[in-house]
Amino acid sequence: MNLDLPWLALGSFASGIGSLYLLAQLRTHWDKPGARWFVATIVTQTGWCFSYGAALLVFDPTLRLALEMVSWLGIIWIGFCFLSFALGYTGRTNVLESGWYRGVAVLPLVETALVVTNPLHTVVWQGFRVVPAAGSAGAEYAVLPVGLLTIIVAMLFVSFGTLLVFDTVVSYGPLYRREALAVGLSPIPPGAAVLLWAGGVGPVPAVNLTTLLFLPHVALDLYAFVRSDMFEFHPATRRAGERAAIHDIATPVAIVDEQGRVVNLNPAAEGMLAIDKYEALTEPLNDFLGDDDIATDGGSSRVSIEAGGRHREFKIRQTALRDEAGTQLGYTVVFQDITDEIRRERRLEVLNRFLRHNVRNESVVIQARAELLAAELDGDHADYASTIEQSVSRLVDSGQKARTLAEAGAGDAALESVALADLTAEVVATAREEYGGSAAVEISDDLQLTTQPALLEILLTNLIENALQHVPDAVVTVTATAEGDDVVLTVSDNGPGVPDHELGVLERGRETDLNHGSGIGLWLVRWTATTLEGDLDFDTSDGTTVTVRLPTERAAAEAG
């Protein structure tokens, strides 16, 4: 090899060109989080490479010293810029924009001032002189403690930024495993070169080989950021989403350890408890809940809290926090405000009691008097009294159905094994005795369901009664067959079919002033089928056929 050729300078220029190429390849991503700082990093790296390449060709002491200072500025600012890029790229903009981080920026500013003015005070280096080295203009001088500290700070910035990017990319799992390895390895060659040069160690001590070793650094970054779409799936989105999922939501959320001590509170929880989260850290969460305590076993409970002079009721839901090895670390405690829900329930209870007692009792009185009048009167007057009696009878019947559903829903959700044929036969017998008509049951005696018997009986009763009550000379057929994990129950009659407007109301799931059902029976069918995790279907092409698909065995969690 001819050492008179400026190989070292050409290598520096090559690294500068490679840096520009990297910058050009990523120009479509310059609007991504941290991109401005990434551009600043590459621009600093490019300027360092070209200036040091030129320095290796200059033997004039004054110019050579000026170019050496530019290299020092590259060392100072590349670390700070890269750390800022890492913070922005990984979604830590709150750190990047914080006052204390702006204070950190004072450090490279002070170091810059010391480097530029070093000829006046010589606290960074001293004894600068130009020496030939491997066909280039090398430089020998003693790096003083302030200079070494400057280099160490820059390397720490780079190291910390690399860890942030590496750790975040690794969290994507196998998707970017190779790219993450490239990101982790890329700072090693230039970083090692800086440290060896600062220590006066290396094949050419008078030459800083860092700019040459930017070549593998650029190659690894090109592999990591250009080959894949790492900049498209930047982690700032996920980090912002994770923060929004807890920090920004209006629902109070607390993170506690296994002993129930506060680890973190989101702003909504701070407002609910009227306490700053830093004051609550390591304190038991129960200490801030007044007279109510929550168990630290991951279960659910209710608490009453006085917040801002207002009494609020909260339902507590706890979810276990576990690490990747499955070790339980604590709980996420979510406070669901159910104050308005409880108030509505209490209003409904009052209304229900009123309907059950006052309206029912008065309706019974009206019905009895109407029956007496119908028996005593003749002609049109008797018809009028009979009409009143029938209307009140329907009203009483609807009230009874509503009470039946309310009482069934208010009970526990205990599951039992039910013989479908026996239950259906009982319901059919009761309905025929009251309404007449013909009803046949075609269900195997061994067909069993694990479900809520009370709700299933309401479902069958209303399906069968609807057919027998509203169809003259009704012929009803009830069948059930097992299909996989389900039981398919059908109730067919020979009537004119359920009116379309009635079915439309059921399909929409709500009534309006202009679109409403004529009774509560079909609503009971829909509500009970839904509660039993069933699917409901009506066919009115030939009479009415109602098909209900129910799970053979319901899970206890579903029944709650």
UniProtKB/TrEMBL annotation:
It is found in: Membrane. It catalyses: ATP + protein L-histidine = ADP + protein N-phospho-L-histidine. It holds the Pfam family PAS. It is a multi-pass membrane protein. Keywords: ATP-binding, Kinase, Membrane, Nucleotide-binding, Transferase, Transmembrane, Transmembrane helix, Two-component regulatory system. Its EC number is 2.7.13.3. PROSITE patterns: HIS_KIN, PAS. The chain crosses the membrane at residues 6-24, 36-59, 65-87, 99-121, 141-169, 181-200. This is histidine kinase. One of its GO terms (biological process) is osmosensory signaling via phosphorelay pathway. GO terms for cellular component: membrane. Its main location: membrane. SUPFAM superfamilies: ATPase domain of HSP90 chaperone/DNA topoisomerase II/histidine kinase, PYP-like sensor domain (PAS domain). PANTHER family: SENSOR HISTIDINE KINASE GLRK, TWO-COMPONENT HISTIDINE KINASE. Residues 354-554 form the Histidine kinase domain. GO terms for molecular function: ATP binding; phosphorelay response regulator activity; protein histidine kinase activity; protein kinase activator activity. Residues 238-293 form the PAS domain.
